[in-house]
Structure formats: structure tokens, C-alpha cells
Amino acid sequence: MSVLIGRKIRKIYGKKSTAQEVLKGIDLEVNKGEFVGIMGPSGSGKTTLLNVLCSIDHPTEGIVEINGQNLRGMKEKALANFRREQLGFIFQDYNLLDTLTVKENILLPLAISKLPKVVAESHLKELVGLLGISDILNKYPNEISGGQKQRTSAARALITKPALVFADEPTGALDSKSATALLTNLESINQQKEVTIMMVTHDPVAASFCSRVLFLKDGAIYTELYRGEKTRQQLFQQILSTQSVLGGDGYDA
Amino acid sequence: MTLSRLVFRSMRKNVKHYYLYFFALIFSVTLCFSFTTLQYNPTVEAALKESGTATAGFSAGSYTLYFIITFFVLYANHLFMKRRSKEFGLYQLVGMTKGLVIRLIALENIILFVLAVGIGMGIGYFSSRLFAMVLLKMLEIDLVVKLSFSQEAFNQSVLIFGILLVVILIQMVWMIRKVSLLSLFTASNKTDERVKRFSVFHMMMGLVGIILIIFGYYQSTLLFNVEKNKIFNDLYVHMMVILGSTILGTFLVFRYSVALIMNALRSSRNGHLKVTDVLAVTPILHRMKSNAKSLTLITLLTGLAVGIMSLSYIAYYSSDKHARQETPYDYILLNDLGLGFLDALEREGIGYEKHSFRMGMVELNIKDLLDESLKDSTVFNFNEGSPTNVISISEFRQVESNVMLKEGEAFITGYDSMLEEVLSLNAERDIFVHSGDTEIPLYITEIRDENIFPHRVLLGTPVLVVTDQLFENVLNTENEEREFFSQVGINLVDKDDLAIAEVLYQQYESERGVVFEGFEDYPYVQPSYEETRKGSLATLGLTIFVTAFLGLAFLLTTGSILYFKQMAEAEDEKEFYTTLRKIGFSTSHIMKGIYAKQLFNFGVPLIIGLLHSYFAVKSGWFLFGTELVAPLVITMCLYVIMYGVFAVLSIQYYKQVVRSSL
């Protein structure tokens, strides 16, 4: 079953004379329970694609359907509601509110929902247990480490039990140890709870946790890799060789 | 790129942030310049020549105005400099020296300032005519105000604003020099702190704040209450105690009590916050430390401004009533002098009503009518009785026909309303009055408030109304020389005759003069009601005008400071809104929280400020006039409306920020 369907998505920035086509007709489908990675060199349109798919940005042409609902033509308020109920977000720079404690940050999306407190509390317990942040619930973001921040952010993304979680470079600001810890967490949540995750990353290690990796080049899908029965290490090697085929531009690591 | 081009580029880019500061500057210059121009306007100067206090009033006004504006401009400048700290940091990071950055910003400031002063003076020049017309209207002077340019006013304003510019530049240099490159980058969020573990000390301080304010309010009700005020006999000390406890209390309330209440609310949510908690409660808590001082200041300024404006408005509002108290009849003829005035009125065919009184005098000790507790007060000396006018009941019936007195009874009327507040009299008592050597027992039936005699006749004493027989006895036994023995009070039937009657009354001036022994050259000439009223208007009008002007300046500065602060907060919180909108909060959800936040930011200083002014005004309003409610309510409503305008403006700004955040 497809959770996300994108058809012929094009995105053009700027006016006619200076128009720049960032996305050139992308088709993709994401099934329930998949962990999809999007990779590509800088300027290939990764983040634009993610923004368009997650309804923060509008495509110039094409259709985006999430859980069978077409996003085109939805009003701002309806879109906001849709995002809150169906989608979860993890950002590179965490986007936690400094004024709120970890617990308050995690429960933030429920601030305008009618979910009973008891239910919310049990969701919270389960998530913080899985992510290993149950003992920092009453701390403020500036008192915890980057890895903890990102796990808080992940918990916030998952608290509403969304159909689809979007992660934009979630490990971008983390050291490799915290990054691996977070990805392991995400992977196990993806497998245990069948949460569909879509992650933009430029880090081959991060991408190797995915069940499928899409490669973007100049606004179009270049190729895709499936993990299948391969080990993470094997996928990682495949990703590296695909990257070298794609060209070194942007991969200076 | 040359320095000047960089300056113009950055100014063009900053115009959005600047325009408010720019308008605020223009506005202050306008206010200042029109005030000084007004002061030197020949028409106004001529009109106010009679009033000796005019110049003093004006200069007191303009100094206060300069003070407010200096404070305001410095504050606004500080706020805007802080907001641009990142920009300055960037300049230094790319290799500009501090000196160059200072020159750059100085150039920007000078251009902005000179422009604002130029425009402000232009507007001020024209608006001064408007203000002059308002002033003359208040003083009921019919003169056409000409627009006039005053070199003196111009020089004075240029000097003041020149000095102000220098001060701003010094402040700017100091701000840039003081900070290191690193702190420049973090200046905008340095002062923020969160109330983490809520200590008992904070809770105590929160409670102390509320108690101090209540204590101050309670003491203010006792300020002129001689009965209950036992602790503070010295008025000055008492006022200082009230002022101190309210000011400290206000600060503690903002610093701790607000946090106390909000923290309680927040903990009760146990992590499950509502939209308003996220957008109002937690940001307010987050900023309370840095905002406490400015909110206290704004609250106190609001209280001060509303208080002063209310008091002067009370004085203006009651000037009619006050004049009536001083001169109860349109025209008064004393000691049977100038009775020809009556014939003159008849000759002109002017209808009038007259009340004639004969006055006797007894010794009455006010002490006998006061409350027990007041008798022991050390503030007043009640050992001797004071000469008190006596009239007969039958003559009193000219004023009010439905009054009766039995043998041995009497009542009191015409007691000064200001004294009534401090030393109120009680009826239904047996007292003794002295007429010559005889002691007369009287039962006081009631205290009435009809005013019959002008101030000069009463000199603060009440009037005793007695039975006709007793009155005759008093007149016969009395041998002491009295200043006044009779009065004819005249009221016009038709107020349209006022102009002619005034002229006639003037014509009899020399005949009306009451000559006292030893002061033959200075006879007392009773003014007409109209003259009394105009006279008090002339002295009060200017005071009221100046205080209203200052009140306006206070209002606009406090309002703009609140607005500027909110603008800065909105910019700071933009990332918040981005995050919230990404994870699914709609603009209307976010705005709901912001309404609550603005309600707090504008509402709480306003409410506490109004409460302060209410208690301040209530403690001593009777010294200024006779009507409390209407002037106070009108002033407060005006203030609330103006604050509302600022709140709406800030909400609009927030809306714009939230809309553009995604």
C-alpha cells in the first residue's frame, strides 16, 4: 500500500527570464513501513523535493498524494491540520523551542488536538523509552546534548503516530556516535512500529540504514538502491560506488 | 564600495526596522517643537500675560518634555542597536575596525536624526497653531492664533536636539566599544533566562510584592484620613512610604509574582501545554527577568501620567462648581452696598431672583461636631471656637422652603467640601455656642450642603441656621464689630443677559467695595460668579494644558516602547513560528496564542498602572476639585483606547511575522 505518491513533480523558482527548474518531473511512490533515503549532491533538489512532498512548499506542477489525499488545492489551515495529524518532522537543527522542557516539546503537536492526557502520556512513555530519553524530560533544550535534542525532536515527530515521518538531514549536526545511535533508534522504530520514514541525507552511513535509497541528480531521479537481503555494510558499499559514479561534486568528505 | 554608499545601502535595507524609530523620533521632535513654538507664540504670550505663572508653567512643562523625550530616544536607540548587534558583529568579522563601524553607524544615526528633526520641526511648526487654539479654547479666550515662526523656539529646539544627538552617539560608541565580537553575536538573547527550579525565595518575593502593593493602596486611603491614620503623622513620610512600597511592590510583582502564577499554571499542565501556554505563558516566563524592569517602569509611568492627567482634569472639570462654591450667586452685594445695581438691572429689563440675608455671629467650636477619635488629633488645634455666621431659618427658606426648626434646634450648612473630606461633621448632637458672654445650648439636627455666602465671608467656617427668635437675640446681644452683616444674592433668570449684567456689575464696583478698618485704601470688592470662574480657568487652564500635553507624551512614549519591545520579540520568535507552522500549527492557532500574550504585555501594565493612579487620585482628589468619577473615568478610557491602538498595531506586526515565517 502506498503512503506517498508523487507524480510528475516539477518545481520552478524565479520568474520567466530567470526561471530555474529545480525538480524536473519526479515520480515516486513510498509504501507503508518503508525507510526511504534521498541522496544527491548539493543543489540536486533534495530539500526542495522533501519540502514539496511534506506540503511545506507547493509544486509548480504535478500531484502529491499522502494516504490517498491530494494536497493540491488544500487551504493553509487544512494543510496545517493535515501536517499535524498525518506527518511528523525531524529537522537538521532540531527546531526545539528553547522555552519549553523536553516533555513539553515532545507533547507540543498535541497542544491543539483533542487526545486525552492519559493516552498522550502512554504514547510519550513508550517513545521516550524507545529513544532512551526518559530521564531528561524536565530539562530544557540548552541543557542537553545534540544527540538528545535530536531524539527529542524524533519523539515529537512520532507522538501523533503519523502516517509518514520526514527527516531533513537529521544527523547533519551530530557527531558520528550520536548519529549512529539516533539512526539505530529510527531503524528499530521503523521496523517495530511500521512507521514510514523518508529521510534526506548526504551521509552514506546514514543512508545505509534505509530500506531504499533514491539518488537525485539535477532535479531528476538518477537511480535507486534497495537493501533487500543485503547487510548494512553491503548497502553502504553500494551507496559509495553509486556516489562515485554520480560525480564528486558536493561529496568532499 | 565607499563608506557613504555602504551607509545608504544599509539604511535602505534597514528601513523596515527603522521606520518606527524614525516616526517616533519625528513625533517627539514635533511634540517638543510645537510646545516651544507655542510658548513663544505672540498671541499666546499676549493672552497669558495676565497669568503670572504662565512662563513658569511652560518652562516646567518643556523641561519635563525634554526629559521624557531624552529618556525615550535613548531607550529606543538602545533597543534598536541591540537588535542590530549581529550586523555590527558581521562588519567586524569581515575585518572592519571598531572605529570604522562606529563611524558607519554614527553617519547613519546623524542622517536619520537630522532628517527626523527637520521633518518634526516642519510638522511641529504647523501643529503648534492647533495646540495654541486648543489652549485658548480651554482658557475661553477668543483670539485668532496666527502662525508665527519663533527664532527663539527654533534655537532652543536645535540646541536640545543637538545635545540629544551627541548623547545618542556617545551611547552608540559606548555600546559598540563595550562588547566583544563574541557577545555581539549573542546580545539579543543574553538576558533571557528561565525560571527553572522554583525556589521558596521566589515564592516569598512574589507574595511580598503583592502584599506591598496592597499595603501601599491601603495606606493611600488613609493619607488624608485623620481618624484612622495613627502610624504616620507626618504627611511627607507617609507619602514616601506609600510611594516606596507601591514601586517596590510593582517590581516584585513583575519579577516574581507573575512568574509565580504562570509557573503554577504551567506545572498544573504537567507537560501537556495548550496553544496559549506555548505562545504566551512560556515566552513571558522566559523573558520575565529582562522585562521586569521595563514593565515596572512603564507601569509606573502609566500610573503617574493617568494620575496627573486625572487630577488636572478634575480641577478643570470642577472649576465651575468650585467657582459656585466661592461665589454662590451670580452677583453678590454685601453690607447693603451698591444696591443701585438692582435698579440698574430693572432699568435694563433684566429679570433676576434675589435672596437677602442678615448675618449674626456666634462662637462655634467645630470640635463639638467631630468624631470622638478626631478630637484628640494633634494635627488640628480645637481649643478655641471660631466666629461663625448665623442666619435665621425664615431667611434660609428663600433657598429651600421645606425646612423647619423647633425651639432650641439649629442646623449647619455651607461647609467647605474639601474640609468635609478631612474633617467631616456629625449632626444630631447637643452643643453650646457663645454669643457675647451668654452660652446658648443648641441641638444640631442636620448638616446641609446649601451654599449661601462667598468664600471671603465664610473663610472656611460653616453657616449656622437658627430659629428666628434666637437669631434676633444674637443680633441684639452681640456687640463685637462684624465684617459682614448683610448680603443680597442675585441670580439672573435668563443667562443671555449675562453680558449686560456683567457690565452693570462692573459699573457699581466702586460703590460695592467693603472697607475694613485699617485697610481703607484696599476695599474688598466681591467678584461676580463669572469673574471667579474665568479667574480660576486662567490659572488652571494652563496647568491642565501642560499636564495634558505631558500626559500625551508619556502615553506615546510608554506605548511605543511596549510596541518596540514587542517588535523585537516578534523578530526573535520568528523561528518559533517557523517550527510551529512546519509541525502543523496554522496561522490562526498561533495568533490565538499571540492575542493572549499581547493581552498580558499591554493589559497588565495598563491595569496595574490604572490601579496605581486610581488609588493615587482617590487619596487626594478633593484638594483639586469636587467631581471624581467623570474626569477619572474619561481619562482612563482615553488611556485604555490609546493602549488598545498600540496593542492592535503590535498584533498586526506579529501577524505579518507569523505569515512570513513559513
UniProtKB/TrEMBL annotation, chain A:
Keyword Kinase: no
GO cellular component assignments: membrane protein complex
InterPro entries: AAA+_ATPase, ABC_transporter-like_ATP-bd, MacB-like_ATP-bd, P-loop_NTPase
Keyword annotations: ATP-binding, Nucleotide-binding, Transport
GO MF annotations, alphabetized: ATP binding; ATP hydrolysis activity; transmembrane transporter activity
Domain named ABC transporter: residues: 7-243
Family listed: Belongs to the ABC transporter superfamily.
Protein name, as recorded: ABC transporter ATP-binding protein
UniProtKB/TrEMBL annotation, chain B:
Record bears the keyword Phosphoprotein: no
TM ranges: 20-40, 60-80, 100-126, 158-177, 198-218, 238-265, 295-316, 537-564, 599-617, 629-654
InterPro entries (alphabetical): ABC-4_Integral_Memb_Prot, ABC3_permease_C, ABC_permease_BceB-typ
Keyword tags: Cell membrane, Membrane, Transmembrane, Transmembrane helix, Transport
Subcellular location as annotated: Cell membrane
Protein name: ABC transporter permease
Domain ABC3 transporter permease C-terminal: 63-179
Organism field: Lysinibacillus antri
GO CC terms: plasma membrane
Family named by the database record: Belongs to the ABC-4 integral membrane protein family.
Domain of life: Bacteria
Record-level GO BP terms: transmembrane transport
Membrane topology annotation: Multi-pass membrane protein
